[in-house]
Amino acid sequence: MTKPTDEMIEAIVQAHRRDRFGDDVIGEDEVVNELQEKAARLLGKEAALLVTSGTQGNVVSLLAHTRRGDEVVVEERSHTFLFEAGAMSSLGGLFPKPVPGVRGYITPETLEAAINIDDPHYAHTALVVLENTHNYAGGTVTTPEQVRALATVAHEHGLKVHCDGARLFNAAVALDTPAERLVRDVDSVMICLSKGLSAPVGSIVAGTEEFIHHAHRVRKRLGGGMRQAGIIAAPGLIALEKMVARLREDHENARRLYRRLTEIPGLTVEEPETNIVFIGLEGSRIDAPRFSEELRKRGVLVYGKHGTRVRFVLHRMVTAEDVDVAADAVADVLRQYR
Ligand SMILES: Cc1ncc(COP(=O)(O)O)c(C=O)c1O
What we know:
This protein is an alpha/beta fold. It folds into two domains: about 5-240, Aspartate Aminotransferase, domain 2; about 245-335, Aspartate Aminotransferase, domain 1 (Alpha-Beta Complex), CATH 3.90.1150.10. It has 14 helices and ten strands. The protein has a seven-stranded mixed β-sheet with strand order 1-7-6-5-4-2-3, with helices on both faces. It has a three-stranded antiparallel β-sheet with strand order 8-9-10. The chain is globular, with a radius of gyration of 20 Å. The two termini are about 30 Å apart. The model has no long low-confidence stretch (mean pLDDT about 95). Bound molecules: pyridoxal-5'-phosphate. The site of pyridoxal-5'-phosphate has 11 residues, from helix 3. Pyridoxal-5'-phosphate binds next to helix 3.
């Protein structure tokens, strides 16, 4: 829900004045090229590609790594499995194998047990997807050591590893480690320039030159080739250069919200690791959609479309004072539904 910063809008204007926009479909937008080179360097990969969204970045990556009929191991609450409208199956002919994670992390043992034997009865298990941070598990962080352990098992069995890093920089900041370390052992990564980093549009896919060459064709197939995409890349550069370090504030605000919410009776509150706080409403008489609606009336926007679990996301446009206002609003709603 972030909006671009003034500096991002100014970057678009400046790039236009300096005549840096061109046709990216034929690789001639200077700003896109600069963004892709910068992102590749930052992520320690050979090459990178600008894509329209996180979903497109994941789908491009999954399709670029696989062939129709292949199986993909995914965590059962992952974005690639739950929230991409079945894209891997409908567009790629891929067969998802959902497995349980531990706070969103697929353990090496779970992965090993999920990989099919090489037998014509079974689909060929080609890929595993890791989500870092893991949205639905609560913005949880996977460490470089955990990534390596998972990738080692995957690679021993000939699988590729894709990291859905929509919020990779939140993990990097939480662990106080460079993002590059978190993706050293994976074959591809997708990061979002929007969301916490505040760019209005865009995501990046990164990997080897060969992978990106292939991903480029898949992006085209999906209609993701854009003309003067520098308009998107210019704010994207500011996102990577200026917006990462401040994610720490969002994590502090998440802790503040957590502390405030734990004081409210009738709630279960999941302890945050980054900028996401989930609550459970089982102890009250209100469900997530009604609760979200009541909060919206009080000026607080949360995500809770079904069931009793509700997501709060902290970002640049939510201050510590806003957190207190939100916590008061939650208390007010629950007083009425206890
Ligand atoms: C973990 C994760 N991956 C991918 C995406 C998809 O990003 P987009 O909404 O840009 O398609 C999201 C979006 O919330 C996400 O949370």
